[in-house]
Design a protein that fits this description.
The chain has 196 residues and is an alpha/beta fold. The chain has 7 helices and 9 strands; from the N terminus they run ββααβαββααβββαβα. Helices cover 38% and strands 14% of the residues. The relative contact order is 0.14.
């Protein structure tokens, strides 16, 4: 289909075929957070939102907002820090940037306590209520209250014996009732298959 004018450079390919550049590649979450520059991050993701619209993509499966707790977590590169305030502010800046344009949005993930890659579909994160609220959920709370993302994606793990996707305490009580989240809460891919 005709997508109009590209926000990225175009070049003529062989036989007069018009070629488009690849998708933009932005720095990883940890690097962005190390700048502490919310304005910069929002601007980068405003450009990402424009590219999403041009390419016909509705939802960005980011930002990843878990807390760095285990240095062996294979997803740490996409998460921001071990500080919930910085994590929340980065997630809000990214969401504000993308959602500047109507029709595109973000998915804050993995909600919540996704601290390890090994056995992440079977691990049970045993967390006190205080640690859950002050460390693991705080970044999500900040991002929701400051930017109202389009979606939340739950994690595979259990939290205190309940799979996060089925956890009314975080999905309904915290996200919906306390923080007034208005968007879609979705599971991570194949969650139903993982839990049978």
């Amino acid at each position: 289909r005709d997508k109009g004018v590209s926000p990225v450079t175009t070049t003529d390919g062989p036989s007069g075929i018009r070629l488009y550049d690849s998708c933009s590649l932005l720095p990883m979450g940890t690097l962005l957070a190390s700048t502490f520059d919310l304005e910069l991050v929002e601007g980068l993701y405003r450009a990402m939102g424009a590219e999403m619209r041009w390419r016909g993509s509705d939802v960005l499966l980011a930002p990843g907002m878990n807390i760095h707790r285990n240095p062996l977590n294979g997803r740490n590169f996409e998460y921001y820090s071990e500080d919930p305030l910085l994590t929340g502010k980065m997630g809000a800046a990214i969401t504000k940037g993308v959602q500047t344009l109507p029709g595109v949005g973000t998915t804050i993930k993995h909600f919540a306590c996704n601290n390890q890659e090994n056995n992440r579909m079977g691990v049970d994160a045993i967390v006190s209520e205080r640690a859950l609220r002050e460390i693991y959920l705080r970044g999500f709370e900040i991002a929701i209250k400051e930017s109202q993302p389009m979606c939340i994606m739950t994690s595979y793990n259990e939290i205190n014996g309940v799979h996060s996707a089925n956890n009314a305490d975080i999905c309904t009580e915290a996200a919906r009732r306390e923080w007034h989240f208005q968007g879609v809460i979705m599971t991570d891919w194949a969650t139903t298959l993982a839990y049978g």
